[in-house]
Specification:
Radius of gyration: 35 Å
Order of helices and strands: HHHH
Distance between the termini: 93 Å
Helix content: 55-70%
Length: about 150
Amino acid sequence: MSRRRPAVIAAATVTGTAALLFAGYAAAGAAGLIDVASLATLGVLIAARAAVRGREPRPVRQEKQRRDPERRPAIRAAAFPAYASIASDLEWGRMSRRHYEHSLRPRLTRLATALGREDTVAIPSLTGPADADGPGVDVATLDRIISQLEGP
């Protein structure tokens, strides 16, 4: 009986699929045939995925999560909100004249004053209309300002 049952299931499946394809063709012609064939294919794929079980993943041991368990985790920028704010201002200062004039330039001026270098560091003001939102300061100028702030 066990050998006969898979053969019966296969025959019923083939007969049912053929009947569905014929009904789809009879109802809407070639478009109906394609629709029914697509749904039948989807059904076969879902049934095959349900029948074939994948292996369970291995559990990850705690000591293998990091290469060196004695080493501390890396420092993240989120731990230093002032750093993230300065990095954001530098990025936006390159893209927006308004952001450079109202955010980055005052910050760089305060930094130069705090370092005692307000006379040696030249922080330019961009010329042009005050309300125009054109490009900000270029990378070479920012590099020069940062080098002067970091220098002796």
